[in-house]
Amino acid sequence: MRVEPLAIPDVKLLTPRVFGDDRGFFLESFNANSFADAGLPTEWLQDNHSRSAKGVLRGLHYQLTNPQGKLVRVTQGAVFDVAVDIRPASSTFGKWVGAKLSGDNHQMLYVPPGFAHGFLVLSETADFLYKCTTLWHQASDRSLAWNAPEIGIDWPLDGAAPTLAAKDAAAPTLAKAEVFA
C-alpha cells in the first residue's frame, strides 16, 4: 500500500495494491502490520457505511471530545472528500485538503483526530465506508459550515447548491465554532 502525506501532512492518501483480472479485483483495505509501519492507527472501534445521492454534502463533522480518527473510502460511486484542520495550535489551522475517492480508484483517506471531515457526492449515488478510532459520542458531535469563508473549500459543485442535512445547513463558521483547545 502506498501512503502519501497531503498538503497537510497529518492527512494521508492511501492507495492499495489492486489485483484484477476478468473475474474482478482483490485489494487489502486494512492490514495492521502495514498500517503500523506507516504510522497509522491499527485499532478501530466503529465502522460506518452511508449511501448518498448526487449533490449530497455531508459535513463538516467532528467530535469536540473523544475526537475520531477516520479511515474513509468509497466502494461504489465517487465523492470529493475534505479534511479541515481545526487544531488552533497547528500551523495549518483553518486549512483544508481534499481528494477524489471512488470505487474505481480504490483510494482511502486517513483523517486524524482534530480535523473536521466532510464529502460531496459526485456520482449518481456513492457508498461511503469509514472506520473510526473512537465511538460516536452524541454530546460532543459538532458541525462546521461547509462554506465557511475563512476556510474557502473549493467544492466541485458545478453551480448547483448541495443537499444538506438541517444540522449542516445551520453549522457555524470557523470563527464561531467550538474547536479543540
User: CATH top level of the domain at 45-169?
Assistant: Mainly Beta
The 3D shape can be described as globular
Approximately what portion of the residues adopt beta-strand conformation? 35-45%
CATH topology grouping of the domain at 45-169: Jelly Rolls
Radius of gyration: 16 Å
Oligomer: single chain
Helices and strands: which structural class?
Answer: mainly beta
CATH superfamily of the domain at 45-169: Jelly Rolls
Give the uncertain stretches in residue-range form. Answer: none
Named at the architecture level, the CATH assignment of the domain at 45-169 is Sandwich
Largest sheet: 6 strands, antiparallel
Helix content: under 10%
Number of strands: 13
Q: Going across the biggest sheet, name each strand in turn.
A: 1-2-10-7-12-5
Order of helices and strands: EEEEHEEEEEEEEEH
Average pLDDT for all residues = 96
Terminal-residue CA separation: 34 Å
How many H/I helical runs?
2
